[in-house]
Amino acid sequence: xxxxxxxxxxxxxxxxxxxxxxxxxxxxxxxxxxxxxxxxxxxxxxxxxxxxxxxxxxxxxxxxxxxxxxxxxxxxxxxxxxxxxxxxxxxxxxxxxxxxxxxxxxxxxxxxxxxxxxxxxxxxxxxxxxxxxxxxxxxxxxxxxxxxxxxxxxxxxxxxxxxxxxxxxxxxxxxxxxxxxxxxxxxxxxxxxxxxxxxxxxxxxxxxxxxxxxxxxxxxxxxxxxxxxxxxxxxxxxxxxxxxxxxxxxxxxxxxxxxxxxxxxxxxxxxxxxxxxxxxxx
Length: 282
Ligand code: SF4
Hints:
The protein has 282 residues and is an alpha/beta fold. The chain has helices spanning 16-31, 46-54, 80-87, 99-113, 127-136, 168-178, 193-206, 221-233, 267-278; strands at 5-8, 36-39, 57-60, 70-73, 92-95, 117-121, 141-143, 157-162, 184-187, 211-215, 237-240, 256-261. The site of iron/sulfur cluster has 14 residues, from helix 1, helix 4 and helix 7.
């Protein structure tokens, strides 16, 4: 039998916002006042966090405990009250919030000011969503599907904003569920292009291969969603963080395997998984 034909999807791995945040952090490690810390892990990737630690960049979890030095805000952004605490402390703040996330926060704030009930499509506990919600007001709702909406909505003028890494399909479902229940429905599609491109390339590839391997942190929301979308096209979809997790039996009798990766997955990690797949004799 010939070795597996391993194809790597277009746009797999780091998105622009994560690359930007990493560059800002590497630069801070060299130049900014010590100690340099990120507020929460910079990205959901254990290997990258360990590499940053080796360069002297630590992780703090509580903004109220920061004293001096430098604090880096990650691409997910932070809630409004956290930003206020940081603005009042004596640390240098490096804001690596992705501009697409900032735009979603601003749109949520504008909807709230204009009297809309803000509905956020996203994962309720995800840091990006917690940040957006802090601008959307106490009465805002966070849902992952129309089924999460309450039986009675607390308003009839509804504004929607979306976690940047959600899929277009989920947004379409939510809009279809909300439209009959709203007097006015204003939708800001704040899904970012990087996500759309990665998802379209991965799902197109998933329809053409015998199996898919999605590489990225198990805690990474966008990687998990990529795996979910690929699994809808190709049930033999596996989400791994490292080559060690790959089991050759998954590929028995198969010819082609596609590899894709979430926005927080470094190129070396993708290459290591692809290399391990190429060594499998199916
Ligand atoms: S996925 Fe999009 S919104 Fe999120 S950090 Fe990357 S570029 Fe920014």
